Amino acid sequence: MDLSAIPGLKSAEAILVRQMGRGHIALLIMEQSARNKWSIGRLRDCDIVIDDQAVSRQHCQITKRGDRWQIDDLNSRNGTFVNDLEITMTYLSSGDHITFGNYEVVFLPLR
Asked: ∠ CA 85-65-54 to the nearest 5 degrees?
């Protein structure tokens, strides 16, 4: 799938896709980072900010380790779920469904 025509994706490592309603999606872009880590939560300091009271301030973190992607729950109040299973840490595959709070996304690595 060629996503290069979508603005902002040239420097993206991965995207999180959220279904917003019939025919509408939102893309959360995980831009290239020297740290290879992306924090997700309500805090404005997070790499991906989720405005949902069911999401903890620092909810989870996704890390790229070589060609593998790891997700860690950061002791969030409501947990992090991958494919409907609550996790503390697991590896992600393309197409995995991640839920934090009331927010569900599909994980798609681009590199």
From this structure: 40
Please say if the pLDDT value at position 54 is more than 90. Answer: yes
Q: How does pLDDT run across 4-49, given as a tens digit for each residue?
A: 667 767 778 999 999 888 888 888 888 888 789 999 999 999 999 9
CA-based nearest residue to 81, from 57, 47, 55: 55
- The confidence band for 2, taking pLDDT boundaries of 50, 70 and 90, is low
Distance CA 90, CA 65 (A): 12
Q: Tokens 């620092």: give the residue.
A: 58
- State the DSSP string of 28-67: EEEE--TT-EEEEESSTTSSEE---TTS-TT-EEEEEETT
Token reading at 21: 């309603």
Residue 1: partners with Cβ closer than 8 Å, 6 or more residues away = none
Single pTM value for the model:
0.90
Q: What are phi and psi of 10, to 5 degrees?
A: -60, -35
